[in-house]
Amino acid sequence: MEMPPAAVRQNNHTLGARLIALIAAVFCFAAVLAGCEDATSPEPAASASQTEQTEQTDRFDDVAAEPDPAGEADRPDNAPPVIDEPTVSEALAALASLQTKGRAPKTGYDRDAFAYRSFDLDRNGCDARNDILRRDLRKITIQRGTGDCVVLTGVLDDPYSGETIRFNRGAATSADVQIDHVVALSDAWQKGAQSWKSDKLKRFGNDPLNLLAVDGPLNNQKGDGDAATWLPPNRAYRCDYVARQIAVKKEYGLWVTKAERRAMKDVLSDCENQRLPKDVTTPKSDKVKYAKAPQKSASKAETETSPEPVKTSTYFKNCTAVRAAGAAPVYSTDPGYGRHLDRDGDGVGCE
Predict the structure, then answer these.
(1) What are the residues whose beta carbons fall under 8 Å from the beta carbon of 101, sequence distance 6 or more?
(2) pTM for the predicted model, two decimal places
(3) The pLDDT of residue 177
(4) Comparing C-alpha atoms, which of 225, 252, 254 is closest to residue 241?
(5) Would you list the domain boundaries of the chain?
């Protein structure tokens, strides 16, 4: 049975309204879902580059949080970084202050101009040799009646050899211990002393800073050498030896040669924090023994048979002449010996 047209139209209208309502409901539901998703969905994952950048920032933050012992945080912008420099020893600093020149001619050199032993620098009534023996030796014996000056015996801990030497004053033994000018007089003459006046020459020749009691044969071996040509065989003493030479040259304004400077620097490279010698004088100790001067007593037979001293034409005007002839030290039994060469009368001249 067919439906009337009016009924068809009414049904179509009803279906259309329902369809529209359904579509509207779907859109509303979709909108609600979209809003909830925006509210609850997580943030998108960071990219690889963003992650790396974040990690680097974290690392920088960790470094910045560490302590800054060098004080670099307070350094102005573009300022150079703080670098810890090695400490320069006192001896090396003093060496750097010395002038470098070549040797001057030896012309006019006279050892006697330095008045070693004949000039009493400290005015204590004793000559320089006995002053230094008393300072550098131990277990000493002093000769009575000499104003506490003349050292008869003692023990030397020799700095040049590292050996122990027993000193006994006498013609045959005094030269076992000699007094060395650490900066040789001839070396000083060729490196500035030739322009000095007499007073300064005498002071230099008797200054305790430049004097050491040492092994006699080694002192002869050294001659007038500087650090470039001679160093003590005892390696343990080389730092102090070179430091003393530098102290003397700085005190008196003497220069060094290139080879000498190089040798000194090489030695001091192994001497950490090497200082210059300070106190070079030693107060007289009360702990000394006193004795009479040893006397020789020849027997009657020896007196009767002893030959007369051999007369010789050899004569030395002074110790400079003795050394020039290669005869130093000269003993009382040697040709050319004279009391004018042996100021302390121990039988050994030009020690």
Answers:
(1) 191, 255, 256, 257
(2) 0.65
(3) 97
(4) 225
(5) 91-101+120-182+207-291, 310-349
